[in-house]
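Example S7 (structure tokens).
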């Protein structure tokens, strides 16, 4: 059916859906033409709680109040700002990724049926949703972990407290604890949020579901919104604010249908980008209009119609009649001779038999007449013309037959062989011989990479060692000792080991996210490609994926590092700036002074470092040098420039433990220096991180799976050969019928015309001769 309309297609699809095929004139179609995605956010994102008026109200209501650091009112403004930011980030992420999705293309060489199309599009939408969520959470995770790794100081003093020791003008910092959890070793330490009536240190009102902790973001992620669903809770909250008019605010509606519970944590909501509902509208008619098949074809079982039967019989009868006309007379003559021979009892010699046979053949040739007149004529000229026509017919027929026979026997032809639904084994066999001309169009031209390739990897052994375990980090932290100089390795060690563990987690999460996206992307080919080409293409894609994964992670880290340095953000351990009191005549003011490591100051560079040591009671006494380790402005920057060589040396680890305040030996096994590795013992952490801390990549390419998903309905190949005997015979029979007819029509006319012209000429010559003789 040529250029069928959508209505026509719908009608024929009802009856012939199994065999109906409609090649698309446009195989790549933008998703924006065929699908529309709407979404609704969690109701908190459209509530008053994230409005600027409410945040300003909270901010002004807390002015002038004397509050403890752990009073909820201290961080309330920042909590609502965090919620507002989460809603804005989620909205921006979804909008950007959907615009990117709409510009991608749905690829189909043939029109996808109505039954299959919605499921394929919904799968693509689901993959986009998963991808955008994973990428968002990964970026957010990297920021959170680098913030912790650098021990960045919160201005709310919720993770470190700064104090001026007695008889000192310089400030010292101390990590806060929430329960048994220290902000020096974890950013997720939290405790229940309360309101306090200053100066009474006992809590007077609990904020259900809300927590405070080292960082507002980390505490908010572990909090719930259950108070925001309770009008009484909201009213009680406002009652603890300073004397102002009550802000008119309505609690969230707990009766609304939702994908979340009232006590779902903010982290659980954010892990779904705070989306309540996705609405996917699939426009199949639009897809049909974009595909715009120029024709549709379908097959069904039936009997041959009358016209086909008649034309076929006519073609066959022509050749059959000619063959019978030539064969039957010869057969009859042969039978007669046999019969005559059987009735004769005369015994003849071989010579006599040969002579008789030759005379018979000669007589048959001389008297052969394929053009006898009807009724038979005794006219000498007529009989001569018939014999001449017969001999000319035989000559031309034999010559034509010989030419056709030689042509069809000697010519080289390109023969095409088609194999229906070949198995992988069949394809492998024919590909060995006919690889250059073999073509197998795929019935599915887009295949998810997860079906055809699998990537495994092994990390640097540090990521599976005891050095990044919670037990080792807590052991170091609890036994580091008191009154240590801030540059002592024992002070920095908990943060160093914690950051190494975060690097391992960060890389693993990055790879998982990237590979999840990669596996849902598609490998597109219209026909089966050879194994070698498939392998090289797939490996090139994997190498590109590895390169961009490394590049993106390093770029993200670099951006965060540069931003941190540019903002001169204070480290909670006072490693980049130290604070001191500068008294004057009116008041006491606190000033900051940049730290220096060697001739490098943290004001101009975050990369300043020096060798790490364990010091004695006097800060000038060096007890032990930690080989390969550096300290600097930020823990992260110093660690990147450090090496792991101490972790390969049991003596080094034992020496560190011997300088702890309670040196009970922690059972620990050092890294294996004899292990085959892509890194050296003195490779810096930055060099290891630049290769994603991967020791080995294992890429498994599943070519057979690719073939099975491509699933060609047929394979065809061509090769040079000569015509076979059956083809030559059938071709000659078909041609001779027409040739005999043409010769029988043309030769008598030609011979008669020539004979007539000769007689005319002879008649003119004879009278002229007679006249000359008479003279």
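Recovered sequence:
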């Amino acid at each position: 059916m040529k250029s069928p309309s959508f209505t026509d297609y719908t009608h024929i699809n009802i009856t012939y859906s199994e065999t109906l095929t409609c090649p698309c004139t446009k195989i790549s179609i933008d998703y924006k033409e065929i699908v529309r995605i709407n979404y609704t956010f969690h109701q908190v994102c459209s509530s008053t709680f994230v409005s600027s008026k409410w945040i300003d109200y909270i901010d002004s209501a807390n002015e002038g109040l004397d509050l403890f650091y752990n009073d909820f009112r201290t961080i309330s403004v920042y909590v609502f700002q965090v919620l507002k930011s989460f809603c804005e980030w989620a909205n921006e992420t979804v909008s950007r990724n959907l615009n990117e999705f709409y510009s991608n293309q749905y690829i189909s060489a043939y029109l996808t049926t109505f039954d299959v199309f919605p499921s394929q599009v919904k799968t693509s939408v689901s993959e986009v949703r998963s991808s955008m969520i994973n990428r968002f959470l990964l970026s957010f995770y990297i920021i959170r972990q680098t913030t912790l790794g650098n021990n960045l100081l919160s201005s709310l003093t919720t993770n470190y407290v700064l104090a001026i020791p007695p008889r000192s003008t310089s400030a010292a910092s101390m990590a806060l604890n929430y329960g048994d959890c220290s902000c020096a070793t974890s950013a997720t330490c939290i405790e229940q949020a309360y309101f306090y009536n200053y100066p009474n240190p006992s809590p007077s009102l609990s904020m259900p579901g809300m927590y405070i902790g080292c960082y507002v973001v980390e505490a908010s992620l572990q909090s719930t919104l259950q108070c925001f669903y309770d009008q009484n809770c909201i009213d009680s909250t406002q009652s603890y604010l300073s004397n102002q008019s009550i802000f008119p605010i309505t609690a969230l509606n707990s009766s609304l249908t939702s994908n979340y519970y009232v006590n779902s944590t903010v982290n659980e909501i954010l892990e779904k980008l705070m989306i309540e509902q996705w609405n996917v509208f699939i426009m199949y008619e639009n897809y049909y209009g974009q595909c715009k098949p120029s024709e549709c074809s379908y097959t069904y079982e039936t009997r041959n119609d009358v016209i086909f039967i008649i034309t076929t019989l006519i073609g066959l009868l022509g050749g059959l009649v000619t063959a019978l006309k030539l064969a039957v007379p010869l057969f009859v003559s042969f039978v007669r001779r046999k019969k005559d021979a059987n009735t004769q009892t005369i015994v003849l010699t071989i010579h006599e038999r040969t002579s008789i046979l030759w005379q018979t053949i000669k007589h048959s040739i001389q008297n052969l007449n394929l053009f006898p007149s009807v009724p038979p004529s005794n006219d000498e000229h007529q009989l001569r013309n018939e014999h001449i026509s017969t001999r000319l017919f035989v000559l031309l027929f034999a010559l034509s037959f010989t030419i056709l026979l030689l042509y069809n026997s000697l010519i080289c032809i390109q023969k095409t062989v088609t194999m229906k639904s070949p198995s992988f084994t069949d394809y492998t066999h024919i590909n060995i011989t006919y690889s250059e001309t073999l073509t197998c169009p795929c019935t599915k031209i887009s295949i998810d990479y997860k079906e055809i390739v699998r990537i495994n990897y092994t990390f640097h052994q540090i990521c599976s060692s005891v050095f990044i375990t919670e037990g080792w980090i807590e052991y170091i932290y609890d036994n580091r000792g008191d009154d240590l100089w801030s540059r002592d390795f024992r002070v920095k060690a908990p943060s160093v080991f914690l950051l190494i563990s975060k690097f391992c987690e960060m890389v693993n999460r990055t790879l998982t996210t990237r590979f999840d996206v990669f596996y849902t992307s598609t490998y597109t080919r219209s026909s089966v490609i050879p194994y070698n080409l498939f392998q090289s293409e797939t490996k090139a894609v994997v190498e590109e994926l590895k390169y961009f994964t490394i590049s993106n992670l390093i770029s993200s880290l670099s951006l965060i590092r540069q931003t941190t340095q540019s903002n001169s953000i204070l480290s909670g351990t006072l490693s980049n700036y130290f604070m001191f009191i500068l008294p004057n005549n009116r008041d006491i003011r606190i000033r900051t002074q940049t730290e220096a490591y060697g001739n490098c100051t943290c004001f101009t560079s975050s990369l300043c470092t020096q060798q790490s040591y364990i010091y004695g009671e006097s800060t000038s006494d060096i007890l032990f040098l930690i080989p390969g380790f550096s300290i600097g402005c930020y823990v992260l920057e110093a660690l990147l420039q450090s090496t792991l060589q101490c972790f390969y040396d049991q003596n080094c680890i034992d020496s560190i433990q011997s300088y702890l305040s309670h040196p009970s030996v922690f059972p620990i096994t050092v890294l294996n220096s004899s292990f085959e590795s892509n890194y050296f013992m003195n490779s810096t952490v930055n060099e290891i991180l630049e290769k994603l801390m991967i020791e080995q990549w294992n890429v498994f390419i599943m070519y057979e799976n690719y073939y099975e998903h491509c699933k060609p309905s047929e394979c065809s190949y061509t090769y040079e050969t000569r015509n076979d005997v059956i083809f030559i015979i059938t071709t000659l029979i078909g041609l001779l019928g027409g040739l005999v007819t043409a010769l029988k029509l043309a030769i008598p006319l030609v011979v008669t015309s020539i004979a007539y012209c000769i007689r005319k000429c002879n008649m003119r010559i004879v009278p002229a001769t007679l006249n000359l003789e008479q003279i």
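Notes on this example. DSSP finds 20 helices and 22 strands in the chain.
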